[in-house]
Amino acid sequence: MPAAHRPPLLARLAAGIAPLLVAPLLAAPFLATLLLTGFAATVPAGAAEPIRIGELNSYKAQPAFLEPYRKGMELAIDQINAAGGIGGRPLELITRDDGGNPGDAVRVAEDLVTREKVDVLTGTFLSNVGLAVAGFADKRKVFFLASEPLTDKITWAEGNRYTFRLRASTYMQVAMLMPHAVKANKKRWALVYPNYEYGQSAASTFKTLLKVAQPDVEFVAEQATPLGKLDAGAVAQALADAKPDAVFNVLFAADLAKFVREANSRGTLEGTFVVSLLSGEPEYLDPMKDEAPQGWVVTGYPWYAIGTPEHKAFLDAYQAKYGEPPRLGSIVGYTAIVSLAAGLKKAGGPDTEKLVEAFKGLDVTGPFGPFVYRASDHQATMGAFVGTLGLKDGKGVMLDPVYVDGVSVLPTDAEVEKLRPKRD
Amino acid sequence: MALDALAFQMINGLASASGLFFVAAGLSIIFGVTRIVNMAHGAFYMLGLYLAVTLADRLPGPLGYWGGLLLAALAVGLLGAAVEVLLLRRIYHVPELYQLVATFALALILNDAALWLWGPEDLLGPRAPGLKGSVELIGRRLPEYDVFLAFAGPAVLLALHLLMKRTRFGRTVRAATQDREMVAALGINEALLFTAVFALGAFLAGLGGALQTAREPANLNLDLAVLGDAFVVVVIGGMGSIPGAYLAAVLVALVKALCIALGTVEIAGLAFNMSKLTLVAEFLVMALVLVLRPQGLFGRPQAAAARAAASEAPLRPMGGTGRALALAALAVALAVPALATVWAYAPVLALDMLIAVTFAASLHLLMGPGGMASFGHAAYFGLGAYGTALAATGLGLPTLPAFAVGILAAGAGALLFGWFCVRLEGVYLAMLTLAFAQIVWSVVFQWEEVTGGSNGLIGIWPDWPFDSRAGLYLAALAVTVAGLYLIRRLIFAPFGHALRAGRDARMRAEASGIDVARIRWLAFTASGMLAGAAGGLYAFAKGSISPETLAVGRSIDALVMVLLGGLASPAGPVLGAGAFTLLQDTVMRETDYWRALLGALILALVLLFPGGIAGGLSRLFAGGRADG
């Protein structure tokens, strides 16, 4: 935590509130600003001159994903600093809650850049927040590594010079499942997805790609459900009434658990082939316990079944430090910091323009093995695992998971060039 | 669509209706007697579910499961009683909306408490023992638990009906719903009655949550999701009416079931996916009901409870000291950009404060002098933001004309919705504003081609000279000062006198020739335009906007700012918005549990200054007289 060298919370809050009580009516908020500003200006510069990484995320709105994420980041920071930092300079991580909305996020980003004087920005979970911070980074010429937001727009339609993205995008996740959907060779498909950009774009990508691979496919039902407020019984029944051979699911978190339980007790998905986005991630799989839907083909993170040395080293270090298995969030947080370290090393320091150039074509090795930040669209090629859900010891697991490299599912450089605005 | 499928979905909907009814009934009872708009009701529901899941995992056997449900609901009821005794009882003497702020703060604290106690991961409870199977119906399988729930709703309805009609407690509650003062005058222990009613309401919310153990995982987003639904159901049914709540719950559930069952339909050659309507179905129903039947289905016009607080003192024009203070504040505000050389964050935070002040001041015009509480003021903020953003990016207009387009868009929205809203009173008016705001939100949220859908619009930066932090800040300062000045002029013009006359004594105002509805309509529009100005500034300040600019959360923030500052004084929104923005910015960087801390600070402010900060300050300045 970065608060060590500042006055205690209560003192500062008192300082913030006191003028509100006694100062002239209209001046109070502004005086308080002045006071806070005065405090902040006294922050001493560290002697070791660390490289400051400003991280903002929706810790309050998405704690299930982001608490492991934070642990992953801290593990990476510890390892890198123990190995001597970057060019002799240690990394310092400053994390902030982005309030879960774009307006607060932009203010927090301003705060990190102006008050905390961070060298780079990273983080964000929600797509709208990620896009807003990306726009801010472009405007203020700050380097921004969007770690988690999935929207295709952040690297394509709204891509900009200063923004790179780590996590496999919505398009990539859908494309990873496509071979299985095609191989199943089902005629009648039904779709169920949360009614916002992520769900809509996943559904439309799925339909486009499947139609190309299998022109006689028919989409017999489409349910767009309000995020977090799924009427599971009704939706499960409506899907079954359309008599599909196969279902493409984009629901996640609480909606997924509700949907699976209702489908089980109604028997509406018996004998139906299901492909499902993200359902193999421990964050979403574990809460379903022994009700995990067996036979679904999913993308996810089977930490218990990955034999590569890179992952084993990560897994051991993580479990030694925290005494619990990692989640996908841990991987994303850890790899984001490792990526920044690799970029900083290649750039020879935190100069923004040099860092941008260094990230183009940057080779990184994370727990999932080596991957590249593509120069063409600033997208990392880190992939994900695809497997079939099964049960083991009363818990859902991914059986026979296969790592799908991001390169294999991304459009070519020439294609993405048409998708990005011509500016860099 | 096959008829049997439709029929099955309707039956299916009854189970969901029961779930809605439990929460809504509790909210309705609490409001009916205590007039408290209980923002913590969703949190009670969420706690009920968390407790039930925990107990179901710990206690053995079917008895443990069902006993656990009941225990969970009872525990939440006890919590409700404690909240009433320890917190709400202290603030009954101030205007009713302050209890809304207190329960809002409580909801923030309870949500963080749940995170601390149960951790971030969703908790899925076991299935209900004895009701794991399903029954065959119209060639489909209906889970036994759904059948149980479908009957549990009417059973609780009947039990509540008997409680209300046949017992002394019920008679007292009904009497208090109609005339609180009279009940107190007849020697009924009002304090005890309020505690009992609040506990009963909380118990029902907890029970509603606990009964969902078998259907959905306990998670931290439930409180807000359920709160919205519960309000809608209560308002459609008529505040205080329990049978109304049940009927409304059935109506909402059936409309949603219908949308889901219909799926994609062809209308005039265009395919439309009806399931997308589930995002906003309940608000469409509510808007329709309120426009046609302003008191809800079963509601009766409520005898306006004589305000417990003394009537507001008439506004006085600003004296010499006031002017001096205002000028001093302006001078300080003008000096902020000079600080940017030392500390660049100052104008950033100050700009957010100015936007909040403008937005809160616009709502204050409506709520203070206008006497109309709005739960959906974000609609006009958002219309302003989207109007500005679309004009700037889509039409390519320069900054100032784009800003004007935003204000006009917000004004047009307020003109349209205001016409319906100003005909209503009190909470019904507030709920109709909320319904319209939700409808606008859902259109913006789903109209991908124009509004960018849930991702919103990005790249909305102002032109020179507003593109620097200081430039935009000074422009925002000019807008805010102009806005505040205009509001003051408006309040002290004959228009403002007429508006306040309409608020304080509608009948007398109308008898003396004031067209109250028209005056209120104009005030609503003016307020909407000012909110739109705040939204336009916001779009330029952030460079990107998303549907969150017109979501409920922003409306509630504005409400809290206005009430925190104080309704009675025009300086209230300035202080409230400044304090709220500053507190939020400060606590967000301090602790992971910043919501709870923010809630605790708001609670402290409400308890310290029961009439808002402005009221508290004027009491302080009035000198050593004991207040009371």
Q: Can you lay out the helices and strands and say which pair or pack?
A:
The complex is a heterodimer of chains A (424) and B (628).
Chain A: H1 9-22, H2 28-41, E1 51-57, H3 63-82, E2 91-97, H4 102-114, E3 120-123, H5 127-140, E4 144-146, E5 163-165, H6 170-184, E6 188-194, H7 197-213, E7 218-225, H8 232-241, E8 246-249, H9 253-266, E9 273-280, H10 282-285, E10 297-300, H11 309-322, H12 328-347, H13 352-359, E11 363-366, E12 369-372, E13 384-392, E14 395-404, H14 413-419
Parallel strand pairs in A: 1-2, 1-3, 3-4, 4-5, 6-7, 6-8, 8-9, 9-10
Antiparallel strand pairs in A: 10-13, 11-12, 13-14
Helix pairs in contact in A: 1-2, 3-12, 4-5, 6-7, 8-9, 12-13
Chain B: H1 3-34, H2 41-58, H3 61-86, H4 97-118, E1 134-137, E2 140-143, H5 144-166, H6 168-178, H7 180-185, H8 190-210, H9 222-237, H10 242-262, E3 264-267, E4 270-273, H11 281-292, H12 320-339, H13 345-367, H14 378-393, H15 399-421, H16 426-446, H17 448-451, E5 457-458, H18 469-492, H19 494-504, H20 506-511, H21 516-542, E6 544-545, H22 552-565, H23 572-590, H24 594-608, H25 613-621
Antiparallel strand pairs in B: 1-2, 3-4, 5-6
Helix pairs in contact in B: 1-5, 1-8, 1-9, 1-10, 2-3, 2-4, 2-8, 2-9, 3-8, 4-22, 4-24, 5-6, 9-10, 9-11, 11-16, 12-18, 13-18, 13-21, 13-22, 13-23, 14-15, 14-16, 14-21, 15-16, 15-21, 18-19, 18-21, 19-21, 22-23, 23-24
Structural commentary:
The complex is a heterodimer of chains A (424) and B (628). Chain A is of the alpha/beta class and 424 residues long. Among the domains of chain A are: 1-39; 171-305 and 384-409, Response regulator (Rossmann fold), CATH 3.40.50.2300. In chain A, 43% of the residues lie in helices and 19% in strands. Chain A has 14 helices and 14 strands. In chain A, α1 (9-22) runs antiparallel to α2. The radius of gyration of chain A is 23 Å and the shape is globular. The two termini of chain A are 36 Å apart. Chain B has 628 residues and is mostly helical. Chain B folds into 2 domains: 20-223, no CATH class; 322-621, ABC transporter involved in vitamin B12 uptake, BtuC, CATH 1.10.3470. Chain B is 70% helix and 3% strand. Chain B has 25 helices and 6 strands. Chain B has helices at residues 3-34, 41-58, 61-86, 97-118, 144-166, 168-178, 180-185, 190-210, 222-237, 242-262, 281-292, 320-339, 345-367, 378-393, 399-421, 426-446, 448-451, 469-492, 494-504, 506-511, 516-542, 552-565, 572-590, 594-608, 613-621; strands at 134-137, 140-143, 264-267, 270-273, 457-458, 544-545. In chain B, strands 1-2 form a two-stranded antiparallel ribbon. A two-stranded antiparallel sheet of chain B has the order 3-4. In chain B, strands 5-6 form a two-stranded antiparallel ribbon. The longest helix of chain B is centred in the first third of the chain and has 32 residues, at 3-34. Mean pLDDT of chain B is 90; it is low at 305-310 and 624-628. The chains are: A alpha/beta (424), B mainly alpha (628). Chains A and B meet through α1, α2, α3, α4 and α5 of A and α1, β2, α10, α12 and α13 of B.
